[in-house]
Amino acid sequence: MNGAHTTLTALKALRRNPMRAMLTTLGIVIGVAAVIAMMEIGSGSSAAIQSAISSMGANVLMVMPGTAASGGVSFGMGSVTTLRPEDCDAILRECPSVRAAAPMVRARTQVVYGNRNWVPSSMDGTTAAFLKVRDWTIAEGEPFTDRDVLNANRVCLVGQTLVRELFQGESPVGKEMRVKNVTFRVVGVLGKKGANMMGMDQDDILLAPWTTIKYRVTGSTLETANQSAGAGSGSSVNTLSNLYPGSSGLYPERSEIQAADNPMPVRFASIDRIMAAANSSDEIPTAIQEITEVLRERHRIRPGEPDDFTIRDMTEMTKTLSSTTALMTNLLLCVAMISLVVGGVGIMNIMLVSVSERTREIGLRMAVGARSRDILRQFLVEAVVLCLVGAATGILLGHGGSQLVRLLLHWPVATSPGAIAAAVLAASAVGMLFGFYPAWKASRLDPIEALRYE
Amino acid sequence: MDLIELRNIYKTYHMGDITVPVLKGVSLIVARGELVALMGTSGSGKSTLMNVLGCLDRPTSGEYWFEGREVARLSSDERALLRNTKIGFVFQSFNLLPRTSALENVMMPLSYAPGRLSDREAGKRAEEMLHRVGLRDRMNHEPSRLSGGEQQRVAIARALINHPPLLFADEPTGNLDSRTSGEILRMFHQLNEEDGITIFLVTHDPEVAQQEGRVIHIRDGVIVGGALAAVKDRTDARPGASPDSTRGGDAR
User: Cβ distance B71 to B51 under 8 Å?
Assistant: First the structure.
């Protein structure tokens, strides 16, 4: 007897008593339906929670420069300048688990528009990638571009609080305002973020190209940013020349031999921090490891020496995220297990009744040539078919239920193919497990006794 | 070659500490193409002998040769195969699958046969069998909608689906009225004569037994008559055959 035929026989046998088959499998139907519905609703809300938390910056990694210490006195985080904008490019290029990375230069100064002024709590010089890192949308206008960054253009994006305080609700796009006597044109308005977990207003922000902030606002030229480099070059003509793509300097290119004979001091632009976003919260540890490797190599740190930078992640948020997800999954798993075991016991019960009711049929089948393993298989397949039919019905019911919830209550739901596969697998496992004993009992029957059974 | 040869078959049941000897040295020869009636009162060992002959049960000791093969020591799977291909069973209570059409009932043994036919071929063969037993119009009826005689015909068609050389009928007319009984018995005779199927009829009704060519009597686990008559002569056997006479002759 081949599999398809056995299945067909099992279906026919079940059809002989459709009402009972239906009631038998009801346990499985309800169990699977509950699991599917809860999975879909649960994973929908869990996805919603996850995206909410990650928009708060749960996947964001902060790379900070290391600490300076002198005579046992540590000066705290960021007291040496070791991070360079090239580090940021290298992280993005060489770390596959990093989705986006942006350099940051911070300033704090007054912004003036018309007769109003305001000091934004954060004034960050960065690149357009910052918006990607923070999942921040532009409400109006456009973000500044990489070319703006290269050219240190005086453009900026402003947060909602700034719009309220300086522009009093009118559209600031295209308007010019002054930051420390430098005129900035507003190219876009950031979407609303509200307060962060510390209660700080995230909308009280001004974003500009980091070159603009660094060289035009905070006024640190390459010379002032790095004394030794400034002293070495001894000239301020080239201040921004390395920022223009394809521009040759004032002096002819030096050959390799000249460069080796008379090395130029390294031009060194420091940034305050690098903000990187991991692909997902699961990949944060990998991302940290990759960034560490890249930066140690770039900063030429020997094995055994301490890092000259620190990486901070949003551990608290990540933990909240994973514990929420784990709790939900475990809860659903418990419900699934209980309902499937209950369903399985129901199946076993009815299969036992069915075996004793069909004793004569079993005897007859044996008399006409069924081996005991044919009988075993028939009853086992019957139980599994019962479970699978139950699972299919349950999946439909559960899916329908969750769609109903979506339509009526507007809860977020997400179809979960994993849950469906798991339900089918679990149902057939239950069928095998709880169908085996009745099937085995049937196969052990003596054909003579079975034929005589009343 | 004889179809069946039993040599000194013993069957003893053990019920706790008590041993119950049921068959006490049965020897028997049945040739191909015979129509044999087995008679005995209840408790005579008739059913046990049936079970041993039908390969449903194994004797405690003795030899059972079926088509030149010793089958008493076969494993249960080998016996299942033998029952499937070589032996047909007809029961007193028909034993049809409820809520299953006559056609599917007849097809059922095919699903256990080696070298299975496709569903289409199996259906065709089952239809032919139902034609043979005269149930052309009732193929898709369920057993509950068939009369007793019709149900027994379905059972006969089922028994014959694998073309077995041997057919066992255990009180086939026990649940039927006399007119239908006659029809069923005529069908057995017809099968015996036209197809040369060896038929082994178990009955306790002397009237039924009297119609058969050869009658074996069993009493208290021993054969008291008809054991050695290997072959019968059909022409003179039928009318007025004495139940416990032992006859000789040549095979058809």
Answer: no
